[in-house]
Amino acid sequence: MERQLERFAPGFRDRVLARAIAGPAELAARNANYVGGDIGTGAASGLQLLLRPRLSLFPYSTPHPAVFICSSATPPGPGVHGMSGHNAAKAVWRKLRQQP
Fold first, then answer.
1. Within this chain, do residues 96 and 72 fall inside the same structural domain, yes or no?
2. How far apart are CA 62 and CA 12, in angstroms?
3. CB atoms closer than 10 angstroms to residue 54
4. d(CA 56, CA 43)
5. Angle at Cα 1 formed by Cα 87 and Cα 13, nearest 5°?
6. Could you tell me if 87 and 69 lie in one domain?
7. How far apart are CA 34 and CA 26, in angstroms?
8. Structural domain count of the chain
9. 54/68 same-domain check
10. Fewer Cβ atoms within 10 A, N terminus or C terminus of the chain?
11. What is the pLDDT of residues 17-45, one digit of tens each?
12. Rounded to whole angstroms, what are the CA distances from 4 to 10, 54, 77, 88?
């Protein structure tokens, strides 16, 4: 991975201060949500894509008004795309704009 990054971004390796490598067992031991090392929070198929983390028109909000979810458990689901965080940020922005 580092060689590929270095190929397109010369000097990348010089900027890396530390590395952390963990396999599925280590990931699962560090975070109980990563069952079997699955960082995608389970199946992303069928109704799972629509119903997780719960059935709601606003899946990024929580019962606490200042806490929002932006994990791969929220739509559009797991992937390296950042859309869960983007959508959660938009939800926070909408919430802030509603306040007087």
1. yes
2. 38
3. 11
4. 19
5. 100
6. yes
7. 10
8. 2
9. yes
10. C
11. 998 888 889 988 988 878 888 777 666 77
12. 10, 38, 27, 31
| 98 and 49 in a common domain | yes
Cα–Cα distance between 75 and 88 in angstroms, integer?
Answer: 9
Alpha-carbon distance of 95 to 85, in angstroms, equals 15
71: burial class by Cβ within 10 Å (0-12, 13-18, 19+)?
A: middle
- How does pLDDT run across 70-87, given as a tens digit for each residue? 887 787 877 767 888 898
Q: Which domain holds residue 11?
A: 1-39
Token digits for 17?
Answer: 């201060």
Q: Are residues 32 and 48 in the same domain?
A: no
Q: What's this model's pTM, rounded to 2 decimal places?
A: 0.55
Pair (30, 60) in one structural domain: no
The tokens 């929002």 sit on which residue? Answer: 68
